[in-house]
Amino acid sequence: MKIQEISSLTEADARLVLSWISDHIDPQLARAIDSRGAKGALEVITTSSAARPSERRRIARLNQINSIAELKMQLERNKIEYLTPQSEFWPEQLNDLELHSPIGLFLRGDKRALLDTSVAIVGTRNATSYGSRITQELAYELATFGFTIVSGGAFGIDVIAHHSTLLAKGATICVQANGLDNFYPKANSELITRITQNGAVVSEYPPGRTPNKSQFLDRNRIIAALAGGVVVVEAPKISGSLSTANHANKLSRMVMAFPGEVTSENSLGTNELIKTKQAEIITGYQDVVELLSPLGQAPIPIEEIANSSIFDSLSDKSKLVFETLPLRGGFEIPEIVNRSGLDRIEVISAITELQINSAIRKSLTGWVIDPKANTRQPALEDAC
């Protein structure tokens, strides 16, 4: 890429180029972006000597880029979006990584999933029947509570967590350690493709980048940062999932782990996390819900809300609107009118009643069911 074109780039496009040519974010590059902006940092790269191997790789990749339009065509061809920290759907929690926050995110799927309340479920690639059963129930039940499940798409615990979430019709996020033109591992490509239709697949790496050990370890910090808490189901003494737990602790995220048999190799890592107080001991999904919910505000499953006392005093039209709304994403009033068959005034009235009972909330993209509906304030008639 010529220096003349670099000077005409927008900040977002400059970040795209930096993501394309960099092995990963490093503190030196992050400081340059903070002080000079992405375009300024890119100009420095083109004019400074490349002493380190990673810097030489950057220059080599930059020289292979003909134009920013070429990069955008590759993204479009692979149905990939690129998000920057200035994007509307950028997950602000990634900023907790500070100098290790990704330059940007490549994404396939529904970017709204990045804004949902999420839990990461991680563990060994060689899951035992014990770990598999725990993960199946954990991911399924947490999805019914409205949590988006984050994991890495790998064999074992990861793939079970993703699959069980999809079975529950929940949303899941897969964080890849490679470019999104080809999913990894290849054997899980069909499942990961399904995730793009029921959540999002993200990576800090551009199309064409293949995974390596360093990138897998770097990826773990993104899994930890995206989630409100991290659950390690099963992990031997040496495990990538322990790396995720370590990142989560540094970020002050809630780390949780299931205990296992003291003689089981696959539980040495999780038992050590618990023993050294690096993780809260848990025995089921109920513990996760309680630990991640504000005091006294644990949510209840969506299917139980409609049968609870919350709706005893609601009108039929309010119940109809509630049943129309999604758990994630959100519908604006015209969409609710279209789906419910009610007119605009009836929908607005129903939304008001549901709001009073704290059964719904307004998200960035519209009205959604509030999983914390059992923590409602009293309805008006209760207060009188």
Summarize this structure as a short list of keywords or feature phrases.
384 residues; alpha/beta; Rossmann fold; Arc Repressor Mutant, subunit A; 3 domains; 9-stranded mixed sheet; two-stranded antiparallel sheet; 11 strands; disordered C terminus
Provide an overview of this structure.
The chain is α/β, with parallel strands linked by helices and 384 residues long. Helices cover 45% and strands 11% of the residues. It is built from 17 helices and 11 strands. It has a 9-stranded mixed beta sheet, sandwiched between helices. The longest helix has 21 residues, at 27-47. Residues 374-384 have low confidence and may be disordered.
Sum this structure up briefly.
The protein has 384 residues and is α/β, with parallel strands linked by helices. 45% of the residues lie in helices and 11% in strands.
Low-confidence stretches: 374-384
Cα distance spanning the termini: 69 Å
Mean pLDDT rating: 89
Number of domains: 3
What amount of the residues lies in strands?
5-15%
Strand order across the largest sheet:
1-2-6-5-4-3-7-8-9
Run of helices and strands: HHHHHEEEHEHEHEHEHEHEHHHHHEEH
- What is the name of the CATH architecture of the largest domain? 3-Layer(aba) Sandwich
Label the overall shape: globular
CATH class of the largest domain: Alpha Beta
Nearest-angstrom radius of gyration? 23 Å
CATH fold-level label of the largest domain = Rossmann fold
Task: Give the beta-strand count.
Answer: 11
The proportion of residues forming helix, as a percent range, comes to 40-55%
Q: Sheet bearing the most strands, described?
A: 9 strands, mixed
Structural class: alpha/beta
